[in-house]
Amino acid sequence: MFKDALHIPFAIKGTIIHSTQTSALVILRDCWIGVRSGKIVYLQQNDNRIIEELKKHDIEEDNIIYLQEPKFVVPGFIDTHIHASQYPNCGKCLDEGMLSWLQKYTIPTEAKFADVDFARTQYRKVVSRVVKNGTTTACYLATIFTDSTLELCDIIQSVGQRAVVGKVNMDQNSATYYIEDTVTSAQETERYINEFTRKEYTHIKPCITPRYAGNCSMELMEQLGQIARNHNLHIQTHLAETTEECDMVMNLFPGHNAYADIYSKAGLLTRKTVLAHGIHLTAEERRLIRLQQSGISHCPNSNIAIRSGLLDVRTCLDEKISVGLGTDISGGYSSSILNAMRAAICTSNTIAILKGPNYRQLDYREVFKMATIGGAEVLEMDDEIGNFEVGKEFDALVIDPAVEGGPFDVFRDDTIEDVFQKFVFLGDDRNISRVYVSGHNILRNLRNN
């Protein structure tokens, strides 16, 4: 019997599905994958000397999982943009455009997180929900409140999820009950980083999080850019989500050529920068983003739900910009990256209808890549996670397409790729039987929180 315990080397034998730099979908049947100390130490198909090879990595026969098709293993999903503090509003409050939606619904909800006890209850729910949906890595935005943001980090640590977490910064154009002055915002960011470092989290990284240029003065953004450089931190923000937002920002910063130029001048465009949305970027702004090697988080559910627009992902990819997927709850009403994959396909199909037959729409293979290794690239973690290359962390999902009471049916003449495609379009958390982060099945941790 397999001993699913910490630090015990183990192997899985079955169908392994992932993406590589050169192929959006690689299906390895009768494949062996070995895991030791949370890392992938072995990946091989049909090896006659497999038991001897696994023993070289201290993997005993008792610690081998045999998966029968149609079960398969995929890399854990990566959510590159998710507002943990907006989870209470998921599935409601979608009758307004983005800027009015922020003021009417979002800011009042986020303000409640000044109460750490309230924050603890809400954050436990959102982390639990996204893990059940197969998100092994999440790039979270919290609130302006340092202590409740650290509470979110404590909860993520207790569950075992991998994450990037940012304390939100905003010193202008917000309600009087939910805003910081410039000095306090920068000081609290430094305190957040210092407290974060002291806690020695295992799979969590801190992040600089100016909400967007409309909420941050240039003075604050420049200070945040310097803090990010001093500590070599990730940066996350919003960019060109709506035309109304773009007009507002350019009116606030008239001396700049473009929205993205504001972030660049503030030192906020780096290899570790995640730019949510990017729907209404100009060609020159995309060029700047590519030169700075920043990434875009495509949040198609949110873009449609609050009517922000349609991101042309194909153009971004053709221009060599890294693109991952984000749920953007609660602008997006689903906390599942599977939903983001489907919405990305629907968005691309809609653009294809508008642009004509020569447009190459995204397919299920490409959005799967965006949900895994693509997200890892956006977060500059592609040397650690995102697929099953030897040496990377074993962040993975075990998928059971034929689970009793599941959301779809498997038929005798379905190929394994057919079944995988059904999972992309029809699957949900019922199909996810194990969620591994660094070789640990963290679904078990949810029952203890």
Write up this protein.
This protein has 449 residues and is α/β, with parallel strands linked by helices. Helix content is 38%, strand content 21%. The strands form two sheets. Strands 1, 2, 3, 4, 5, 14, 15 and 16 form an eight-stranded mixed sheet that branches. An eight-stranded parallel sheet has the order 6-7-8-9-10-11-12-13. A hairpin with a 2-residue loop joins strand 2 (26-36) and strand 3. The model is unreliable at 1-5 (pLDDT under 50).
Keywords:
disordered N terminus, eight-stranded parallel beta sheet, 15 helices, eight-stranded mixed beta sheet, alpha/beta, 449 residues
What's a quick, concise take on this entry?
The protein is an alpha/beta fold and 449 residues long.
